[in-house]
Amino acid sequence: MTPGQKNGQDDPRPSGRPDDMPVGIFPTIRGKHSSLEEYIRAADEARERKNEALSRTRKYKFDTIAVNGLYSPEEAIRHNQGALIEPLYMGNAQAYQDTDEWEGAFRYKVPSWCYARYANPTVWYLEQVLGLLEAYGTGCDASCLVTASGMSAIALAADALLAKQTEGPEEINFVSSLQLYGGTFQQFTVRQKRDRGIDVRFVVDQTDLEEWSRKIDDRTRFLYTEAPSNPQLAFCDIRAVADLAHARNIPLVIDATCATPALMRPIGHGADIVIHSLTKSMGASGLAVGGALISRKPIVTNLRNDNPFFKTSFAEYVKWLPFRDMGPAASPMNAFMILNDLRTLRQRMDHLSQSTQTIAEFLEKHPRVYRVDYLGLPSSPYWDLARKYMKLVDSDDGRGGEVNRSGHLLCFRVNGPPENARKVFDNLKLIFRAGDLGRIKSMATLPALSTHLQPGEEFRNKADIPPQMIRLCVGAENPADLMDDLDQALRSI
C-alpha cells in the first residue's frame, strides 16, 4: 500500500489544517529517534521551521524568490555540504531509518517523499518556488503540484473537478473559451467529451460575458480559459469571468503559460487554479518538459469531497491522492533544469517582451503582411485587457505603477494564398522552424499545419487560425538580425 491508501481506498488521513498535509522534505528531520512519537515531534518542529521560512520568504522581492526559493544558507550548510544550488536528487525511492520513521511517513505524520512517483526533493524545491511566485503580491497563498507536462496538469485539474458526485450517470459539463492550444482542445473534445461523455461548452468570444453566462447551468463544474491564448493571443476579463464563476460557486481555471508569473498572476484577479506548461517560457533553455498546477488557498467550489484539502489546498490534494494514483510524475532532472531557468525569469521576460514589441511593430508595417496579432499593439482587440492584466512585476512606470509588457509570442498573417505563408516559412534562415514556443532561441511554426492540425478546419475557422498565419516566438537574439531574416523571407513571395 502507498501513503494514504487503505485496502484500495483513500485513507481519510490527514485531516484538519493544510499544514497537516505532508509537503515534502524541507526541513529534514535526519537523525534516529527512539519512538514513533519522537519522530512525530521532530516532524512538527520541522514543519514549524518550514512555515517560518515561508513567512520570511514571502517578504522578499520577486527576483529574490526566483533565485533562492526556500533554499537557504542554513539548509545548504546543515544538509547539503554547503552547496549553493539546490541538489539534484536522482534516486527514485527513499530509505528509512527504522520502522517508526516508516510508519510515521506512511501515516502522513512525518515528512517523506517515499517514491519518485509521489514526490521528489528536487521537484519539491520547484513546487515551492512556483507557488510563491504565483502568489507574489496578490495577498493570497497558493500551493503547487509539478507534473510531467502541461497537458497532464490540465488533465489532473479537470478530472478532479469532474469527479462523480452521485451514483449512476451524471449530466455534467464545463465551459471553456474556444481559443485554446490544439492539444487542450483535443483533451476536452476527445478525452472528456467523446471518451467520457462530459459536455464541454465553448465560448467563441471570450470577451463577451453574456456568452459565458449563457453556457453555465447548475451542472457546470468549472470555467476554463487560456490567456493569452496560443496562438491568437486572445484574452478575457479575468476578474469579471472569475466573478461570474464565483456567483455560481464554481472555480475559474486559467492556463497562463504565455504570460508567466513575471507578467501576470491570475489568482490575484480571482482565478482559483492556474496551469502552466513549464516547458515553455519558464523553462526557456529548451532542455526540459514539465507542467504545474497552482491553486489559490482556498478555491471556490460547490463540490462535495470528504478530504478537506480538496477546497483548502487543491494542488496538494491532487498531489497526494489523484496524482499519486495516476502517476504523471516530473523527472527530477527536468525539475532541476526548470528551477535554474526560473532564476532570471523577470529579467528575461522583460527583455524578450521589448524585443517582440519592436518586431511586432516592424511586421505591422511590412507590405507583405496583412495582420499582426500581438497584445502590445493598439490594433489588437485585446490591447485594453492586456494593459489591465499584463504588467512586469516589480517594475516602475515613473507614476507608481508597473510597466506593461506583452510577452514574446506573436502571430503574423502573410498576404495572398496559403502557399505564400509556406514559402515565407521555408525561407527563414536564422529563425528555427519548430512546433515549440517560449525558448531563448527564436522559432516559428504554422499552427494550421502543426499545433492546431488535429482539431480540424471547422475549429480553426471558428478560432481564427487561418493557414496564412505564422506563429513567432521571439528569443534573445538581437532583434535587428531577426527582422532582417523575416524581411528576406517575406520578400521571397
Attribute tags:
single chain, 493 residues, alpha/beta, Aspartate Aminotransferase, domain 2, Aspartate Aminotransferase, domain 1, 2 domains, 7-stranded mixed β-sheet, 5-stranded mixed β-sheet, 19 helices, 39% helix, 13% strand, globular, disordered N terminus
Describe the structure concisely:
The protein has 493 residues and is of the alpha/beta class.
Largest sheet: 7 strands, mixed
Average pLDDT works out at 91
Can you tell me the CATH topology of the largest domain?
Aspartate Aminotransferase, domain 2
The helix fraction, in percent, is 25-40%
Number of strands: 14
Counting helices, strands and paired strands, the structural category is alpha/beta
Question: How is the largest sheet built, in terms of strand order?
Answer: 3-9-8-7-6-4-5
CATH architecture field of the largest domain: 3-Layer(aba) Sandwich
> Could you name the ranges where pLDDT drops below 50 across 5 or more consecutive residues?
1-26
Shape: globular
What is the C-level CATH assignment of the largest domain?
A: Alpha Beta
- Under CATH, the homologous superfamily of the largest domain reads Type I PLP-dependent aspartate aminotransferase-like (Major domain)
Classify the beta-strand content into a percent band. 5-15%
Count of distinct structural domains? 2
Number of helices: 19
